[in-house]
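Milestone M4 deliverable, item 7.
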Amino acid sequence: MMKQSFLCFSFLLLFLHHCTTTTSAQSSPAQAPSHGELSQSPAQPPSQPLPQPPSQVTPAQAPSEIPLVQAPPRKAKPAPTNATKILEKAGNFGVFIRILKNTQVINQIENQLNTSNSSTILAPTNGAFSGLKAGTLNSLTTEQKVQLVQYHILPSFISLSNFQTLSNPVRTQASNTDEYPLNIITQGNWVNISTGLVNTSISGTVYADNQLAIYKVDRVLLPLAIFSPRPKAPAPAPTLSKPKKGESSSSSSYSSTVLNTPAAVLEASNALSIARNDMVLSTVLAVVLAVFSVGSF
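Output delivered:
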């Protein structure tokens, strides 16, 4: 009887121990894997710490390189207008370019364009210069060549539609409008140019912007001051002076007031020659009459 009680008590202890072990295994955290499990599964990285909430004072941030307002792109400074290169690129203006360079008028044009001034060039073609008489340009002095080239340049920018607003005579870079008149008549886009010696018209636009305009003309503009100069006014004729009170109007007074001038001397010499010729003719006629009268007797 005592042995049975001991066995029952032993089984009861084993049962309680088994229940206690199972309960603690379920409630305890996972145990580290055994050596065999480490060899079978790859190593896991350590877990990262959770981010901490930001504190009330935030550190200053570096300024952004991107501006709030974008600056406009910088415009490159435009190169100055080169009238020579424009004419060379257009072609058929070789003679006019050579005269521009030889007279150095091209330097004046480019200086004006570089200082924000404007110009209009009436450029004759090579065919226009071929239409001149042989030796025309070579017969001109340096000053006349300069004036001829400047006669083809207007001192402001004129678009093709604005020629009708000009007043005649149109002012050019030549000396003045009295000796270098230039008249322009328009009808629509047709622009006629007259110098008093040459009539021509604009046959095309070579180049045009807001500062420089170059137009093609098929004839050289010949100004009156160079190719048809006005004759000089004749010298005033000598006048007879009235004799003073107490003086007679004798031949001595006439010679002292009139014959002293070269023109009067020439007139007196001519009058003397005519008088001599009349005297000789009278003598000859008298002799002839005398001969005829003797023969009649």
